[in-house]
Each structure stands twice: as structure tokens, then as C-alpha cells.
């Protein structure tokens, strides 16, 4: 009787999070990702949107927003992202110790971590605003785009503050230094700044500031991006150019390090390419079975498997001269670091859960039956429940790209046909204007979206 | 039995979450503190400060003593990190200024609609030419009212501080001189509660 009550409780607690409670999140998302690289990217939107009211609404809103965005429906994407932003704000407003939070933690003790409502790591939240800014930009709502950019900047500052205490490279960022040596040392120590700070976000916010006429703000963001991800030639050029234009004190230093700024000719426009490639890797579960007091138990922890090799740069033809993209951020590295930082709390909850589940089993098992070596249905049912319900928390924003690359070029005004690996896109270049081309490579095809902005 | 108690407490705490909701009317000028975002109280505070300041500024009093100057309102530029309808702020301000009886306004947001209407009256052949309003009879504005709304947001632990500053200016279009300028500052601090639902 007692164990039935316990099971009922466990299920009712999980009721809202049924989505990823027993079916792993990556396998739920597999068809969505498949659709994104097919000709009907928007097909799974309906199913995703239905889940926005669930416990993990935040996660599904992020995915739905991204799916709509990749498919080119920017206004739908905007409203999905809005739902995700609202969900984050609700989390912010929540009391430090809340009844619903305790309920979820209690649920996670008897079931698994999937009962806890999803809340993404810092970099996902920044990317949400970065993508929302691009939605506004693509719809030519420039004021709205700048609002999102500033919101992203605020969140980036929070992230920066979080790391500034422990990491020297981030401390240097606050002083506005672009220090390549620090990063070289970091790479050897296996703790590069780019594995916990997102240079792509800083580059996008900087780019939007620049395109919409706030060059001073752009310079600040570019400088931070260059500190996080040194060695990107396009970013270095941006820095020298803006330092020269704004007569910044760092101009001489940047000039000697990166070469002098190349400026456009009278009839030149500019093509700026943001290229997002692949999908961020999925979490995988490691499951270890063992026995406590002769009863079977398992622990199941999320991890990222194997090594994810570098994606090669893309070659762009059809512009003035062939152009090779340069990486600005590895989102996979950010995801791995985010999981690493979560692990201590995860282990604490895992230990508590193993204890709780083993006590539950002992409370239902009959000592007399055990002594007589009889069939104890209750104890066996409880053990089966324990093993089945022990599912690693594999949730993360899976439609994010794995890597972001950039390229920029000045070229005379006119019509061009930009092409990457056989996929092409017509771009119009106007003198004195910038053409932002946003390419999203989902494996089988690359989708291009572009917008002309008069500077 | 111990477990039953635990289950009961958990179930009860979950059940508490389902409180019923209701709708009621409130006072539109009531102080609103639902959250730290830009809200109606901020809008009202900005409007009343700006209108009072402008109507009592001695040079502006001198300008409006003999005639009702014509103003056009440029938008207030939103430089905050929130999506704020700044047109609503300028609407409130121009509304109050107009109601004071000291200024006249030109609405730049309706120029296209007016042009369409005049085009219809003059060129469609549907309207009696003697009653059609001619192009080029409108009166030009003498002054421009414009402004900026910016914010500084700081967050540390469970405290969030939001500071808003609105600056507004009145420019004489002929001379380019700023005839009036003022700013309104608003500070809001939110501290997250430790215990809650």
C-alpha cells in the first residue's frame, strides 16, 4: 500500500515534466534537428509550441524560437523567444527558497533530475537575447534590436563578473586589454577564456552596435570578443579600423600588432557574413548499476562523449576575391564547461537520491520474506522502479550551432552571388551600406538570410 | 506511517500553488510596483515633471505670453535595455501641453495619412474642387520637442537596481537654440525575497 502511494506521488510530481522524464531529451529532439536540415524546417514547430506550457517550457520555447528562426519565420521566432525570456524573468523573480522549488527538489529525490524545471546555463541566456536581436534586425526594427543588444550586454556583464573573481583573463577583459599571451598560457593549462565566455555573442552585439551607428559601443564589444577569442583576422581588422576611426589610444598598439586598417573605396559596400555550423553536441548518460543491502540501484550522470574535432573553415566564392571564414566561437566548448560547472551540485543530488531510493526499497521489503528467501513483489517492484526512474538529466538547448564563423569584405557596389560549398545566395551590395548575410549550416543545406543596412 | 506524513506534506505544498485568480478595477494613478520594469508610475512621473517644468520656465512663459507657439514632437529615443513604448510618453506630454492652452502641435506621425487624404480631395475627381483643401497651406512648426530615455541596470546577488533618466529639450527651429531642457531621474531597487511560493 505504502509503495503504491509513493509511486503515485512520484508520478504526480513529475506529471508536468513528463516530456523528458522517461524519454531522453536528445531522442525527443532528434526529429526536430532532422527537420531543420530538410526542406520542411518548420514542421516540428507545432509539437514544440505545445510543450511551452509545460514545466520545461523555457527549453521548448528556446528550441521553438530557434527552429522558427532557422526556417526564416522571424516574427514567430520572436514570440517564442519572448516566452523564453519571460520564463527566465520569472526565475529571477522567484524567492531564493520557494515552495515550488522545494517541491521539484523533493521530486528529484525520488525520481530524477528531469523533474527540476529547466533553467539554461548563462551562455544560453545570452544567446537567446543575441538571437532575439537578430530577429528584430531582420524585421528592420532597429530600436528593438538595440534593446535586445543592451539586454545581452547586461547579461554578458553578469557572466563576466562571475568569472572575474577566479580567472585572470577575464579580469583583464574588464580593463579592456586584448592580451594574447594570457590566452596562450590558458590554452596550455586547458582553461581558455573561450571555453567559458562566448565571443560570438560579443561579436554579434558589437556588430549590431556598429551597423546601427553606435560605433563606440561596438568597439567595446569587439575588444572583449578579441580578448576571449584571439587570432581572428576579421575581428582584428574591425578593432584597428574602429580604433583609427574613433581615435582611440590603442590604435598604435593594434596597428603594430594587426596591421593598418583597410578602408573602403568611394563606391564600396561591405559584405559581413555570420556562418553558424552544425549542432551543439548532445549530452549522453553514463549509467552504473550496483547493489546496496542486496537491492539493485543505478546512478546515471550526464556527460559529453568523445572529442569534437574542429570544423574546417568555409571558403566563400562569388565575391570580389575568394574569402575564407574564421572561427569566432566554439559553442560545444561552452556547453561542456557549463556541464562541468553543474557537476558538483549534480553529484550532491545524485548521492541524496541513491540514499532516498535505497531507504524507500528497504521500507517496503519484508524482512521475513527475505530470510525465507521468498518472492518479495514489493521490493522487486521498487527496485525496478528505481532503475527505470534513474535517468540522467540530458536537457540542453540542442538546436544551437556547434561553431560560429565570420568573414567580412569591402567590395564595389553591385549584384553578387555568394556561394559556399555549392550553395549560393544572391546579395546586393550598395555603396556605403553594409549587407549582413546570416548563414545557418544544418548539415545538408545552408540557409541564408540577408539585410542591407545603410550606415 | 512516517512516509504518509511526508507524502501528505508534499502533496499539500503542491496543492497550495493552485490559488484562484480574480480581476478588479484599480486607480490608474496608483503607485504600481509589480516589478522593477518601466511602468505606469514612471510614465506619469516623467510626464508631470516635464510638463510642469516647461510651463513654469521663465523664458517659455515669455514665449507663450503673446502667442501659442507651434511645436512638433520628435520621438524620445529609447536607449534602455527594455522594450518601452516611448511614443506613449511623448503622447502624454504633448497631450498635457496642449491641454494647458499655451501650445499648438503638429502631428508628424499622421503626415502620410493627411497626404493621402489631400491627394484624394484634389486628384480623385470625387470631391467638389471648391471645397477641396489645397496642398501647401499647412503651417510650419517653430519648435521641436525631443528627448532621450536611458537606463543603468546593476545586479548583485539578490539586489537589482534600475536607474532611469529622461532628458527632454525644446529647440527653436529657426535659430537652433535650445530654449528649454530638463531631466527626470527615477531609481528603483528590487531585493529578492528569501522565502516564497
From TrEMBL, chain A:
Ranges: TPR repeats: 199-232
Gene3D superfamilies linked to this entry: Tetratricopeptide repeat domain (1.25.40.10)
Native organism taxonomy: Bacteria, Pseudomonadati, Pseudomonadota, Gammaproteobacteria, Alteromonadales
Keyword set, alphabetical order: TPR repeat
Protein name, entry field: Tetratricopeptide repeat protein
Species per Swiss-Prot/TrEMBL record: Shewanella jiangmenensis
TrEMBL record, chain B:
PROSITE patterns: PROKAR_LIPOPROTEIN (PS51257)
Gene3D superfamilies xrefs: ABC-type transport auxiliary lipoprotein component
Protein origin, superkingdom: Bacteria
Stretches assigned to coiled coil: none
A UniProt-annotated Pfam family: LpoB
Protein name: Penicillin-binding protein activator LpoB
Gene that encodes it: lpoB
